[in-house]
Design a protein that fits this description.
The structure is a homodimer.
Chain A: H1 2-8, H2 11-24, E1 33-34, H3 36-43, H4 47-59, E2 63-66, E3 70-73, H5 78-101, H6 105-123, H7 127-144, H8 148-171, H9 178-190, H10 194-204, H11 212-218
Helix pairs in contact in A: 1-2, 2-4, 3-4, 5-8, 5-10, 6-7, 6-9, 7-8, 9-10
The structure holds a DNA duplex.
Chain lengths: 224, 224
DNA sequence: ACTTCCATACTACCATACAAGTATGGCAGA
DNA sequence: TCTGCCATACTTGTATGGTAGTATGGAAGT
């Protein structure tokens, strides 16, 4: 434990990261009851750092703290998910337009490399890897236009969005035309076709949302 | 104290809100050194709720916690401010476009009422009141298109943006053509002219940023 | 059988003590 | 005078005991 502790700086931070990972990956499904005491035992730390992580996760909307009653992993709020998608669409459309104006060559190369790895992951049907690569792909885009603050904001909202993506992956581990869209996006940036790039991005980020009603019917206990 | 405590639910939450208000209003200027102990004394609570608020404020980027060294009110990061403005522009342009598609009549009336109050505040040169009304105006817009989650995200980013607005207000308590733009925006929504509305909004949210270099030169110790 | 009440076992919240890292000022020695 | 060391007084991080509010199950009364 000491090793991972040093990595994340403090026990509180470690617990925070671990819990967040477990929540987003649905290892801790929505609605799961937690408690400071219980969690402190499983992580072999005192209640203080646990409480600290609870506060942070509650602020991100991943935990719901009911004073003197208990703490639960928050249910997925469909409206919240749609809004997260909405925000991400607006911001990424604007970012990809910026990329069409100017984009550093090395970052473009990184995206190409990422694309190759995506292809490999698809062949191997490695969903988890594909997930990470997709995220990295978009991250590079933000790095290229130097809007990392924006990316970080998106990441926070994505905690909710990602839970539905994980859920969907469990039903249909199919990555559709994400890869193809990524490829087209690079092309659009290269040819500085902002309108095209924006259109592709919009489609790209509209895909996931159509699944939401299906998921809500399949896992009603996970939704608000 | 008990009164305000009940209002905000818990001591930790109270300290959080008070500190946040003091930071955004520059009552606690950027760079100010704080400590859990010191703050706990001024608020007459223990270190625990203070620490809780520190964690939350640090996550929002308003505090900078250096382990075993101290805690300071974060300096204003010009890049961060510009990104906050960028995000707000993108999101609010999209929202006002939605408003042009459909907008409830009662919310439109609320905006009209708000506009009247703005006019009064301008006559009385009440900057603080004008500030609040401007914020309320935009809030109503988000309420009308039911994108409150988006509004809340913007509010968090605005903590940084608002510090520069407060600073600017101290140099030049002039509200320029904000009022006129608000008026035109209502007109655009009423006539369902999305392109016009978007253009006005863009101008509206571009104004403030031009002042940033001036502010940085005038108050260099407040900036990164 | 049904309702009411209460003991009990939870919960988050808060205060406090201790641990460990860091800045600082003064003192000793060259 | 200048340099290096060290005691000391900070800082945040962690652990723990106690408090008040809440859910729950069983016993007593109707």
């Amino acid at each position: 434990m000491d090793e991972t502790l040093l990595q994340s700086g403090s026990a509180g931070n470690l617990v925070y990261q671990q819990l967040k990972q477990q929540i987003v990956s649905l290892e801790l499904p929505p609605g799961t009851a937690l408690s400071e005491k219980e969690t402190s035992l499983t992580f072999h730390v005192s209640r203080t750092p646990v409480r600290e992580s609870f506060v942070r996760l509650a602020q991100e909307g991943l935990l719901l703290v009911l004073p003197q009653r208990g703490t639960r992993v928050s249910l997925i709020d469909p409206d919240m998910v749609e809004e997260a998608r909405f925000m991400r669409e607006q911001l990424e459309k604007a970012v990809v337009r910026l990329a069409c104006e100017s984009f550093p060559a090395d970052k473009l190369q990184e995206m190409e490399n990422n694309l190759v790895m995506q292809q490999e992951s698809m062949k191997q049907l490695d969903g988890k890897r594909m997930f990470e690569l997709d995220e990295a792909f978009h991250r590079i885009l933000f790095e290229g236009v130097r809007k990392m603050g924006t990316w970080n904001v998106i990441q926070q909202m994505n905690a909710h969005l990602n839970r539905t993506r994980v859920l969907w992956l469990s039903l249909d581990p199919h990555w559709g035309n994400l890869f193809e869209q990524h490829r087209e996006m690079i092309q659009a940036i290269r040819s500085r076709n902002a309108d095209l790039a924006e259109r592709i991005m919009k489609e790209h980020l509209t895909l996931s949302i159509s699944n939401l009603p299906v998921l809500k019917q399949r896992y009603p206990e996970y939704f608000k």
